[in-house]
Design goal:
GO terms for molecular function: hydrolase activity. Pfam families: 7TM-7TMR_HD (PF07698), 7TMR-HDED (PF07697), HD (PF01966). This is Phosphohydrolase. Keywords: Hydrolase, Membrane, Transmembrane, Transmembrane helix. By secondary structure, the chain is mainly alpha-helical. It has three domains: 143 residues, no CATH class; 155 residues, no CATH class; 220 residues, Hypothetical protein af1432, CATH 1.10.3210. The chain contains 27 helices and ten strands. A four-stranded mixed beta sheet has the order 6-5-3-8. The protein has a two-stranded antiparallel sheet with strand order 1-10. It has a two-stranded antiparallel ribbon with strand order 2-9. Strand 5 and strand 6 form a beta hairpin. The longest helix is centred in the N-terminal third of the chain and has 27 residues.
């Protein structure tokens, strides 16, 4: 292979092009292929488009208020249904007859009355049961309400007050018997109370069934507009009547059969629009995030997340577009900003929302709400590693959704009081969408595992000094641990000064020397007594142990599954520099020295972040060898070490500039001055 770099570059280029081409055609494939109403309009505002004529016949759709009014009329006038059960009547009559025959309170002279009592009671009871003895507790609007009685699957209407309730039936029988003042009154009434059972009961199932049937029979249209009818002229105010016609026409466009749609024309239009947006994304990446284009993993993650959101959205639109606002669109920038910078997260969010705006109704309203919420997500959402911050983030997103949506609703309707059930449903969907945004955390974790990319959340979790690796370092090599903490603090400040990823630099600095756990006493910061183990070794052996801490550190990092981003700091923090002290010792005793034996294996720093660590690590370690340093000593040390690193071309693979290096040196000088409590000495 004569040109491996060229071949790798070409492979990446082919992969990039393939990803974008696939994204374009996949997006067009999943887009709903139907006519969309292309005009935006608002009630009370002028019609700014050309005079609009109907291109086809369409029905005028009743408004939600009209349908709601019809539903209320049906509900208020709906008939109650009762079931009559005459099978229980013979048993009841027989039991009452037996109990009456056992009465012994009637005097001998009234024996004829006793013989006729049962007959009279049963006769009146039969009349009552024929009309119907209904159970009490029925919510009836008025006594003269017409209800329906179901008997042997035969329905007949009756006025409710024509039926009896138990108390009324007993009073009626007593009155007909004319025994209010006789000895029969109490025993007869007691028997009737105990044994009379209602034979008519309210049927909620049948009532609800017939009500539902009536509601389903509501006609949702109220007229027909014919083809070529003028709907609205340019400049006309969109009144309630015009709004009704426009809404109906819009619905007609959306409901037209695919057979009436020119699929080829629509598909070509989709391809053009989607291609423009994806090409815009490519240009943005090339100019502002070229590293994403160079990494197949990062590009795959970016495209996959976009296509995932588009797929979910198109699925919801095909099922029922009214549930569009349930989708947590702000999860997109929330997830992306944990892997990329804020600019890219916001740009990708806007591009994705613009694509969705092509196929949704009320596109301007949808895009405005989602883009504003995306801006809030990217610019005003803090570190979501903490659960409290994630909840605050979701609250801000939800409030943004609701406030902007209500503002649009008020503009269109002209009043807050015109907010209807449909608007309330959308507000509820915004709340639900906010709750779904909480699932951004597990989504981030899945992306890390699937694509092998480390998010800044994982990086921040590694900065915890109670992690297993750092606690082990603190126990085995306490001096190295303190050195790492010092380097982390200085390097973080330097990274902030030049606009580098300070969180990543801090984590890299904390772990860069973990390889010293293998032979901690061979490193001066861990030597507690005056003895030095290197006195018993040759310079070459000592250099080998010193150099080996990089290899050992990489091994420990891989065993503990540290991200590659962190391992990069371990492997590059000495670059290909020379262990000068032992190299000079070897030169003093041996003229023939292989310098490669005293050089780190590299690689050299390849980013601003890894370059910062090399500079700060070397300076902080060297500063410990100066007894009672002055400000001039610190300045000279910083300049000398950085100059040596530049001479050795340690930064040639890095994007760091001389301007950045100058700023880093100033930060390091300032921090070391604070650490050693130095101050400028003024002449007496």
């Amino acid at each position: 292979m004569f040109f491996p770099n060229l071949e790798l570059k070409n492979t990446r280029k082919v992969y990039r092009i393939s990803m974008f081409v696939f994204a374009i055609f996949f997006t067009v494939y999943i887009f709903p292929k139907k006519n969309n109403f292309q005009y935006e309009y608002q009630k009370g505002k002028p019609w700014m488009n050309k005079t609009l004529y109907s291109k086809f016949d369409f029905p005028i759709i009743k408004s939600e208020k009209e349908i709601e009014a019809e539903e209320n009329i049906i509900k208020n006038n709906s008939k109650l249904y009762f079931i009559k059960n005459d099978e229980i009547v013979p048993n009841i009559l027989e039991n009452i007859s037996k109990r009456l025959s056992l009465l012994d309170v009637i005097p001998y002279r009234d024996i004829i009355e006793k013989n006729n009592l049962s007959h009279r009671v049963l006769r009146h009871l039969k009349e009552i049961y024929n009309k119907g003895l209904v159970k009490s507790g029925v919510n009836i609007k008025s006594a003269d309400q017409v209800v329906s009685i179901v008997e042997d699957n035969v329905y007949r209407d009756i006025i409710f007050e024509e039926m009896y309730q138990k108390d009324d039936a007993i009073d009626h029988i007593i009155q007909k018997l004319e025994i209010e003042n006789s000895a029969l009154y109490l025993p007869v009434k007691k028997i009737l109370i105990e044994l009379i059972v209602e034979n008519v009961s309210f049927s909620k199932d049948k009532t609800d069934k017939f009500l539902e049937r009536e509601l389903q029979n509501i006609i949702y249209t109220k007229g027909l507009v014919y083809e070529n009818t003028k709907i609205i002229a340019k400049g006309d105010i969109v009144t309630s009547e015009k709004m009704e016609l426009l809404d109906s026409l819009k619905k007609g466009y959306e409901n037209r059969l695919e057979g009436n749609v020119d699929i080829v024309s629509i598909t070509i239009g989709f391809i053009v629009l989607v291609s423009v947006l994806f090409v815009s994304l490519y240009i943005f990446l090339k100019n502002f995030n070229p590293n994403v284009l160079k990494s197949n993993k990062h590009l795959s993650l970016l495209i996959t997340i976009i296509l995932f959101i588009l797929f979910i959205t198109c699925t919801i639109i095909n099922i029922d577009s009214s549930y569009l606002y349930v989708i947590p669109f702000c999860s997109l920038p929330l997830v992306l900003r944990t892997f990329f910078d804020n600019k890219l997260a916001l740009f990708v969010h806007i591009i994705t929302i613009l694509m969705i705006g092509i196929v949704v109704s009320n596109g301007f309203e949808f895009m405005f709400i989602q883009i504003v919420a995306g801006v809030i997500t990217v610019l005003y959402v803090g570190n979501i590693v903490k659960r409290a911050n994630l909840f605050i983030c979701v609250s801000r997103i939800t409030i943004t959704y609701i406030v902007t949506y209500i503002a649009f609703t008020v503009i269109q309707s002209g009043s807050l009081t015109d907010i209807n059930m449909s608007n309330m449903l959308n507000i509820m969907m915004f709340l639900f969408s906010g709750l779904l945004t909480l699932f951004a955390h597990p989504l981030i974790y899945m992306c890390e595992k699937i694509f092998g990319i480390t998010s800044y959340i994982s990086i921040l979790e590694l900065s915890d000094t109670n992690s297993r690796v750092l606690k082990k370092l603190a126990n085995k090599a306490p001096g190295t641990f303190q050195h790492s903490l010092q380097v982390a603090n200085i390097a973080e400040a330097a990274a902030m000064e030049i606009g580098a990823d300070y969180s990543l630099v801090r984590v890299g600095a904390l772990y860069h020397d973990i390889g010293k756990m293998f032979n901690p006493l061979y490193f001066i910061e861990n030597q507690r007594t005056g003895s030095n183990l290197h006195d018993k070794l040759s310079p070459k052996e000592s250099a080998s142990i010193i150099i080996d801490h990089v290899t050992k550190g990489i091994s420990i990092a891989k065993e503990n599954k540290l991200p590659n981003k962190v391992i990069d700091f371990i492997s590059t923090h000495h670059g290909t520099s020379t262990v000068k002290y032992f190299y000079k010792l070897e030169l003093d005793s041996n003229e023939k020295v292989n310098k490669e034996d005293f050089k780190y294996k590299g690689p050299k720093p390849f980013s601003k972040e890894t370059s910062i660590l090399m500079i700060v690590d070397s300076i902080e370690a060297a500063s410990r060898s100066i007894n009672n340093p002055t400000i001039d000593d610190i300045d000279a040390l910083v300049e000398k070490i950085v100059e040596d690193q530049i001479e050795e071309k340690q930064f040639k693979d890095s994007e760091i500039t001389f301007k950045d290096i100058t700023k880093i040196k100033e930060v390091v000088k300032s921090k070391l001055t604070d650490i050693y409590h130095l101050r400028v000495e003024y002449p007496s």
